[in-house]
Amino acid sequence: MKVIITGSTGMVGKGALLECLDHPDISKVLIINRNSAGIQHAKLEEVIHSNFKDLSAIKGKLAGYDACFHCMGISALGLNEEQYTEITYTMSKELADTLYELNPQMVFSYVSGAGTDGTEKGRIMWARVKGKTENMILNKGFKDAYAFRPGAILPEKGIKSRTGWYNTFYAIARPFFPLMRKMKSVTTTTKLGMALINVSLKPSKKKVLENVEINDLVNR
Q: With 70 as the cut, is the pLDDT of residue 163 above it?
């Protein structure tokens, strides 16, 4: 299986990347980033691209893939709805449109987050926008598509968040990680990466997946 990953410089995307590089059923991984992930591997190809609203310049590199793990995201803090929509929905639509044209038989998985509003009508701005993005991807027409809604995620394998206060929280909470890993309501970067791979290899009947379902998918 050949996989495209966005957001691999972030905590979730890097978790997915590490699992893909270790997985025997994955032969190639293409990562698309604004800045280099700084990882070298025989399976790995990296494309640096700054304008995610227009992928035409790298379109020639995106054909022939079986799955996409769209892990790129940003906090809504300090952004108005127009700004957040441009980054979250508009850029995701450009990616989905481009990949559907080139690889309609791929499995497309979008990592949004717990609390996403699939009705698109709620009072919380970021939840509406993520819901709109989920719905666009789920209804695009890919062979299969999933919306991952992780809540609490524990970083593993040396991964760190790009958000400073998250890292402070993880440093304080680390003594409790062994107990937290046993909770069905908590997942890890490793489990999330494995779940993304597993639904691409073997379909899941449920298309919107939260932490309990994500954890259940790991040992399918």
A: no
